[in-house]
Amino acid sequence: MNIAIDGPAGAGKSTIAKKAAGELGFIYVDTGAMYRAVAVYLTESDISASDEDLVEKSIADISVEIKYEDGAQQVYLNGENVTGKLRTEAAGNMASKASALPCVREKLLSLQRDLAASNDVVMDGRDIGTNILPSAELKVYLTASSAVRAKRRYDELVAKGAENIDIEKIEQDIIQRDKQDMEREIAPLCQAEDAILVDSSDMSIPQVIDTIISEFKKIK
Ligand code: DC
Prior knowledge:
This protein is an alpha/beta fold and 220 residues long. 51% of the residues lie in helices and 17% in strands. It has helices at 13-24, 31-44, 52-59, 89-98, 102-118, 128-132, 146-159, 167-183, 205-219; strands at residues 2-6, 27-30, 64-69, 72-77, 80-81, 121-125, 138-143, 196-199. The radius of gyration is 17 Å and the shape is globular.
């Protein structure tokens, strides 16, 4: 069984997908983390995402692997666990740029499909329902307004003790990332025709999870 959850940055996909996977006893697969691992590799190797030829040559021999430790996804880049380096704004922005390149998408495609072929998964990303798992039993397009997504990010940063945060700048970055992910030529972010739309702007996390679980029960 495969559940695909796609949507823009900051819509809460990973929180929701992780909890839904836990409730159903499925594996949670965070595909954004795979793109972030490639982004970390490019940044550490001082390679720009705009130099497509160099990116293609340099990533040909790198290895990106996924392992599960205590139920949590760990990403290994060339044998090193890089999970702790992935969730920065810089890695996210670089991942968004690099993921527009066909060679980067090609590199990660079979890793994603193989995980879904051999496990029950809840997989989140941008093109899971449209491209990676077109036959997923359930597809969800999870979104929220850019203002709500910015406010959630702002609250997260405040909770971590950050100061002087500019919420308008956060919203501008979100809008920019949406544009990059939706307007790229290859596998752009869009709602699959057979995906259910969940706008979480005015919903709590339990409400979103209940919606997904009850949709899943309908098709099971
Ligand atoms: O979900 P995230 O913020 O971790 O993803 C980081 C970037 O990776 C995102 O801006 C676009 C890219 N990505 C993608 O192109 N396709 C996916 N399935 C997942 C992520």
